[in-house]
Write a structure and sequence with these properties.
Elements (H helix, E strand, L loop, with lengths): L1 H15 L4 H16 L5 H8 L8 H14 L2 H13 L5 H17 L2 H18 L4 H12 L1 H4 L4 H10 L3 H7 L1 H18 L13 H30 L5 H24 L7 H32 L1 H12 L3 H18 L2 H18 L4 H15 L7 H10 L7 H20 L1 H8 L4
Helix pairs in contact: 1-2, 2-15, 3-15, 4-14, 4-15, 5-6, 5-13, 6-7, 6-8, 6-12, 7-8, 7-20, 8-20, 8-21, 10-18, 11-22, 12-21, 13-14, 15-18, 16-18, 17-18, 17-19, 18-19, 19-21, 21-22
Length: 433
Amino acid sequence: MLLLVIFILVFMLLSALRVPVAFSMGIGVLASFLIGGLPVNLIPAALFSGLDSFALLAIPAFIYSGDIMGGGGISRSLVNFFAALFGRFRGSLCNVLIATSALFGTIVGSSVATVSAVGGIMVPEMLKRGYDKKQITALLAATGFLGILIPPSISGIIYSLATGQRILEVWFSTIGAGLLLVILYMVANYIVYGRKLPKVTEPFVFGKFVREFAGTLPMAAVAMIMPVIIFGGVYGGVFTATEAGAVAVVYGLFAGWVIFPLLFKSKPDGKLFAMTRKSVLQCASIAIALSAAAVVGRMVALAGVVTATSEFLLNVTESRIVFLIIVNIILLICGMILDPNVTILIFAPIMAPIADVYGVDPIHFAAIMLLNLGVGLITPPLAGNIFVACKVTGSKFGEVIKPIMPFFLCAIIALILITYIPAITLFFVQIVR
């Protein structure tokens, strides 16, 4: 237990000094090994083992496919489709933003990517139509972490690798949370903001609605086919989750650079080389963090951290309810100050076995952890998603705190329901079990 405390203290100190995450983890582990008298010659082998996994190839594949699909015009096609579908509702573009972020999560699997891609398209149009910039920023930040919950999710892949669970089960565990948040966000948006907007006075013309809907559906269908291919292929046994990443890359290239230009005369929104470079840099940083996390895992195993921590918690409480309250508080704080993937790499191997001792299904715990880390991204004062959304809209951090509170409360309600009603999570998991 002492070694874990030493590691966390060193890691947090170096992170506060803006040392790169992977190096902060590595130095923290080295300090723990030296102080604890553990053999440091185990570190090189652990670094290598952290990357010696075929399943890890899924991470760069889905990162690259997300960048390709975003830059290939896919996100714009989804926005146009939902605008045609919800266009007559009061404050309809807010619902378009929520729905697009949710569906975009099935393409990119990343919170920051969802905020950047959807915000870059939606924000200018919403500002042009008179929507309040602070409200837009709050909603964009809140919906961004749907990219973590709606599969395929990069964070879900990392959790499965860190805990030894099936990737497909981890992915399906967060579908309930994602759908629940979509509903809560739409209701909260209407109550707090949407009903204050002017009604649509233009008379409804069914023929015009059908033409607009039919005009946007083909391009949107091209985008929505990708998750169908991924889950149909994996669930049907055609290919593994790792191979699904490669399929997503090929399909993204084909959709953005062949189907859209030839059939719809639509050019890609970005250059392929720039997208590739961006993906490579992101993959490299994650790979280094994964390697360092493997050393953390080795230290945890050698020091008996899981056993010591579980014994400590059992001495504090034997109640499953109290344990989950403690875990939620810890994860919420971690999600607020750390990158979700880093938090998963450090804490999932420790907390998941302890949760199992308390009778919490490991897949149910995956949903609890991933949702917590998403909520942490919109929890002031650090709230990473708010900073990214402010950068997209040009808003100030302080003026977004009040508008985001209704969505934060929705996320807390969803977290409580997901934590204490396992059926919301396991209902979808049963499909692939």
